[in-house]
Amino acid sequence: MPAPDQMAATPTFRGQFPTTPAEAPRPSRREWVVTGWSGLALVLPAWMLGAWRPWSLGVTLGLALVAFAALFAPMFDYRLWPRSDKARAAWSRLVRFPVFWLGLAILIYGTVAALNPWRALTADGRVGWYEAIPYIAHLPHAMETPFEEMNAWKALLQIAPAWLVACAIWAGVGHAGLLRGLVGWVAVNGALLAGLGMLELWTGTREMFWVYDPHPMYDAATFFSSFIYAGHAAAWLTLALGAAAARLDAAWRAQPRAVLGRGVWTLVFATLLAVIGEIQRPDFWVLACGGMVAVLGAMWVGRLGRAGRKTVALLVGVPTVAFGVIMLVALFVAVWSWHAGADSTLDIKVNPRDASLPVRYAIAKESANMIAATPVWGWGPGSFRFVAPHYLRHNPWFTEPDDPQILRFSVNYAHCDWVQLVAEWGAVGASLFVGILAWWAWRVWSWRRLLPPESWLILAAVVMVLIGAIVDFPLYNPAVLVALSGLLAVTIRAAEPSVRLG
């Protein structure tokens, strides 16, 4: 039995509930540092134009690098004296973390592609043409394009912060109180961004925070709050909504003294829900319904299973999950069929909003042709906006009637992240991204009985964003990608048996 003055440093695990305040574990200095920098990396990109500008992308990458480096920086913690807070434990967790190796493989894959360009782009009006250059055909390859617009290097910089933050949280934070704090931090920042965005709309400004004009082509109906594209704001706020729902659920299940917490989290949740309902696309809500039913059904199964009511879980919870999946598939087929059957005579130049959905279908269809042209390695990270015009100019929807070589408008994204992922990264690269999602899904399933009840609400928000990526491009926004990967790491890390209570 340790001495009384050493009990605070004695680790207490999920199976050993603290019996006195002295036994409750406290976070180490390393955990505080990793949590602080990770928290900044989770929310600051949302305040900086969604990290879509080179300067904001650089700041986001810098914050993520500091959070990751804190895993290995030498730190002294007087509470652990004479033992030191060595980084060996963090390194041990990191090398056993499959997302670390899959993310590293993605960065290596993209680096090889960037160093092995196979086409050089020369602008010709609004439709580019390519110049073949020597390259190694059996290695990943990309296009040689300007960094300011997009190329393989910029694509890697957009992905790296999400990977670094997820690894830092998974390997460096093992205290339940800090993990809850990160969830609440995202929720509060989401409510502040949502409130400021609504003030912008009510005042009629076309400037972000009344000081920054994003671009002449954007208007108050296009951007929202600090995001240049309102669809990305809606995706990020959806993740914040899941975080707020989790904290609200935890507050209502807490002891009666948590009245203030219940009021605060109810206000945060209501603010986010109202704003998202105002700015999110209708087709997103249609597709998200099935995913929400499926995830909440799984949450129900988990709660019933923990309560020992396995029969009820099988008879009620499992059919609910199945109904959600079936509804998701049916709604997706219905929306996609509507895309395909839309009137092709719509004048997208005169009525671009009315033709939004059929145009998205047409872009995704041409993107499938891009995949067929080079299915293994793809066209290269960041190449879609330069290759797509060559396929779209064969469709009269996208070209000027007087000159079919000139596009009516720029198409920088496929508006379906999953199609664009395969088109740019090929089957080999896309399989690495799918592997990360598959590992997260497997870990959720294997730890479903250990997940705190509120974790399912965050996972529901993640599923909604992933479903929204079918008809939009939220995952190509660095702020959304960092928040999604960070919340996944926080949520699933909280279920690990080795996480200390607090």
List the keywords.
mainly alpha; 3% strand; 3 strands; three-stranded mixed beta sheet; 502 residues
Q: Mind explaining what this structure looks like?
A:
By secondary structure, the chain is mostly helical. It has helices spanning 29-47, 54-69, 88-95, 98-115, 152-172, 176-203, 230-253, 259-279, 282-306, 310-341, 356-373, 384-392, 417-446, 455-468, 478-493; strands at 117-122, 129-132, 142-144. It has a three-stranded mixed β-sheet with strand order 2-1-3. Strand 1 (117-122) and strand 2 (129-132) form a beta hairpin. Helix 1 runs antiparallel to helix 2 and helix 9 (282-306) packs antiparallel against helix 14. The radius of gyration is 24 Å and the shape is globular.
**Total of helices:** 15
Q: Within the largest sheet, what's the order of strands? A: 2-1-3
Strand proportion, as a percent range, falls in under 5%
| Helix-strand sequence | HHHHEEEHHHHHHHHHHH
Name the average pLDDT.
77
Task: Report the span from N to C terminus.
Answer: 21 Å
Tell me the Rg in angstroms. Answer: 24 Å
* Model regions low in confidence, pLDDT < 50 over at least 5 residues: 1-23, 339-354
Largest sheet: 3 strands, mixed
Structural class: mainly alpha
- Which term fits the overall shape? globular
Share of helical residues: 55-70%
Q: Could you give the count of β-strands?
A: 3
